[in-house]
Design a protein that fits this description.
The complex is a heterodimer of chains A (about 280) and B (about 300). Chain A is an alpha/beta fold. Chain A has helices at about 5-10, 45-50, 90-95, 135-140, 165, 190-200, 215-225; strands at about 20-30, 35-40, 55-60, 70-80, 80-85, 105-110, 125-130, 150-155, 175, 185, 205-210, 230-235, 250, 260-265, 270. Chain A starts with a helix and ends in a 9-residue tail after the last strand. Classes of the chains: A alpha/beta (about 280), B alpha/beta (about 300).
Chain lengths: ~280, ~300
């Protein structure tokens, strides 16, 4: 059951984020690389409302172990279906691989604040590390028709995730692998250095959108902040509720901010790089 | 004769009358509005808001939570906006609701509890005060009060001295005998007791040999702790005359019913909100259906109805 947001506004005099909790049908659930799976879930409301960078909380099963919902970035939408990429890292994600098509699981979303889209005339640079590419695929989908740079880094060639895997329109991307087995050999942030040099005279015209492991985000923040380049990072954290109630997903805020911690679920998951205290990450 | 009318779900917690026995537990439901898009707040027995201190608190460094088998460990550290901001920014929204708002308070010192009570004195829209003497995740105060009967009584008195509202004291399970604390708080004049707060626990990452929480230890909640909570509620309900509110791992109406049978007058639902945002309302509906099926006229009749002389 859904409560009308308009009536809430009348009741409280303030607006609320659109979110719903419902059972959604799994329309697809397949491995795309050795450790990474793609799941499609049918929800007209979530697929219709979600913005790039937002996430959903999934309940993996009806049992009590694992207990908590799991947060996943939305990596794209197709009509009334939204897609999530997940890496099999623990009990919850292992159970997810066993979920059959047509099964229904509880989804809560769309949650959080997504990427702020940059104005025309700015070149978006999407910087993804590993499974962190997930929300950037959705962002690229949203930016269709615009010039953009999409840089992705993976540990090795076998772990590369492509738009083809997702069934999305092809994109021109630059790939790095840590072991040099495909594309640029090194980290994606090293690959980004090349872009920075190429655009050195007009660095302010770049807008970076980054998601990946914390050291990668830290490096991306350090590379952009001193140069006047806007950089938005999508963070992750252990999370229980996903909507600002439990305050479990704290991330340290920069000294200039009014508060000591942000909450990834509500204030993020996307933050301007300068809002974060990177020494605490 | 079968009663076809709707069962009466009202319960009384001291002077406070609730439309049903299901409340939200402090710290698991924010200030209410976080769940407003998903839950009709007017249908709740009461909302117990996130614990408030005199001054805002930033809380503990992350990681603050970790999942455990059938539970979770948290060390939020009572992060909150402070009583002043609550009264200015959050309470006005809550006043429009057709439910009771119970304010959970926490102080570093006994005096602070009294000051918090004074700040809430006569405040419209606040139905009762819940006194947190049982938070395991802060250095000063909190559980330090709740594990000592004399201190528990002093905190209770200092709140009662400065308020005109019903006072509920929330007890810690991290004690040798919870009945001793319960009795001390009752004698100090509390209107009701709520229990249990979380159990202190620890999880270690075996790869790095470091604690999973930055605070090292945290409070365990969720269905894993429910049997302990049911037992403690039973013990306390046998000991005191004031109403007992049962808390601890309630996920559905059956769990809630266990607490009522053990002696609780009402229940609070905590961790379940994170898993099923509508858990509270599902529980209210489940209790209602159960009463209809079992011919129970008033939910209050279930309280303390444990059958102990069952012959097989």
């Amino acid at each position: 059951m859904k409560i009308k947001i308009s009536s809430l506004k009348a009741l409280y005099g303030i607006s609320f984020p659109m979110m719903i909790e419902q059972r959604a049908e799994i329309v697809s659930n397949q491995p795309v690389t050795r450790y990474t799976w793609l799941m499609g879930l049918r929800s007209l409301e979530i697929a219709g409302e979600a913005k790039p960078g937002q996430f959903v909380m999934l309940r993996v099963g009806d049992g009590l172990d694992p207990l908590l919902r799991r947060p996943f970035s939305i990596c794209g939408t197709r009509d009334d279906v939204f897609l999530i990429l997940y890496r099999v890292v623990g009990k919850g994600t292992a159970l997810m691989t066993r979920l059959a098509e047509r099964a229904e699981i509880s989804v809560l979303g769309p949650l959080g604040r997504g990427f702020g889209l940059s104005e025309e005339g700015v070149l978006p640079v999407l910087l993804g590390g590993g499974i962190g590419v997930a929300p950037l695929f959705f962002l690229a989908q949203e930016l269709t028709g615009r010039d953009l740079r999409f840089l992705m880094g993976f540990p090795t060639a076998a772990e590369i995730i492509t738009t083809e895997h997702l069934g999305l329109a092809p994109l021109s991307v630059s790939v790095s692998t840590d072991d040099g087995s495909r594309g640029f050999g090194g980290f994606v942030t090293d690959l980004f250095k090349g872009d920075l040099e190429a655009y050195s005279s007009k660095a302010e015209s770049l807008a970076v959108f980054a998601c990946g492991p914390k050291p990668m985000l830290k490096a991306a923040a350090a590379m952009t902040m001193g140069r006047g380049i806007s950089c938005q990072v999508s963070l992750e954290a252990n999370m229980a509720c996903g909507l600002g109630a439990c305050q479990g997903c704290a991330v340290p805020a920069d000294r200039e901010q009014e508060r000591a911690y942000f909450h990834v679920c509500q204030d993020g998951p996307v933050f301007p790089a300068e809002a974060i205290d990177w020494s605490g990450i | 004769m079968r009663n076809f009318s709707a069962p009466d779900l009202h319960v009384k917690i001291g002077p406070l009358e609730l439309k049903n026995p299901v409340m939200t537990a402090s710290g698991t439901f924010g200030y209410g509005r976080e769940y407003a898009p998903l839950v009709d707040l007017n249908k709740l027995g009461a909302i117990v808001v996130k614990g408030l201190s005199l001054k805002p608190r930033a809380g503990n460094p992350p990681p603050r939570i970790v999942e455990t088998p059938c539970g979770m460990l948290n060390a939020i550290g009572l992060a909150n906006i402070g009583i002043e901001t609550f009264l200015e920014e959050k309470l006005p929204e809550l006043r429009g609701l057709d439910t009771h708002v119970i304010v959970n308070i926490y102080g570093h010192h006994i005096d602070e509890y009294g000051e918090l009570a004074a700040a809430l004195k006569g405040v419209e829209g606040v139905s009762a005060i819940e006194v947190n003497i049982s938070c395991p995740n802060v250095e000063q105060g909190g559980m330090a009060f709740g594990i000592d009967p004399a201190m528990s009584a002093k905190v209770t008195e200092s709140v009662l001295d400065r308020t005109d509202k019903p006072v509920i004291v929330k007890l810690s399970p991290n004690v040798t005998d919870i009945r001793v604390i319960a009795r001390a708080v009752e004698e100090a004049g509390a209107h009701a007791l709520s229990l249990i707060n979380t159990l202190t626990g620890m999880v270690i990452d075996v790869e790095t040999r470091t604690p999973m929480l930055a605070n090292m230890t945290g409070g365990l909640s969720g269905p894993a702790i429910r049997p302990i909570a049911v037992h403690m509620v039973y013990q306390v309900a046998q000991t005191v005359k004031i109403p007992v509110i049962g808390i601890g791992g309630i996920m559905d109406w059956r769990d809630a019913m266990e607490f009522l049978i053990a002696g609780a007058r009402a229940v609070q639902v905590g961790t379940a909100n994170f898993i099923n945002p509508r858990a509270t309302l599902d529980i209210v509906e489940g209790l209602r259906r159960f009463c209809v099926e079992k011919d129970i006229d008033r939910i209050g009749d279930v309280t303390g109805s444990l059958v102990t002389n069952k012959k097989l």
